[in-house]
Amino acid sequence: QVQLQESGPGLVKPSQTLSLTCTVSGGSITTSYYYWNWIRQTPGKGLEWMGAKSYEGTNYYSPSLKSRTSFSRDTSKNQFSLQLTSVTPEDTAVYYCARGYRGLRGYDYWGQGTQVTVSS
Fold it and tell me: What is the pLDDT of residue 44?
């Protein structure tokens, strides 16, 4: 059973960088051909795909967030991470990590989500 767990601060000040980590258990983040995604949900926009890191370590970014987003991973800890810079209150959302598979739509495993509020 694969499990994903998001972690990080629940409150970030405007203009700062939001950093979240997803810890994966029950499966390796380097296993072919899985993709490890970041998705957020806001009341106004619904679910928004932010991007993904592939099993090979390649990054894929949403065009709308590319200039502010970066992904990293620590294979020794089986973790992957999100950094979102220059946050504003519009970045307030529930952030999820989720697993996808090459060529398939959707995600088979999700984290429980973590609320991040951007406020001074």
Answer: 80
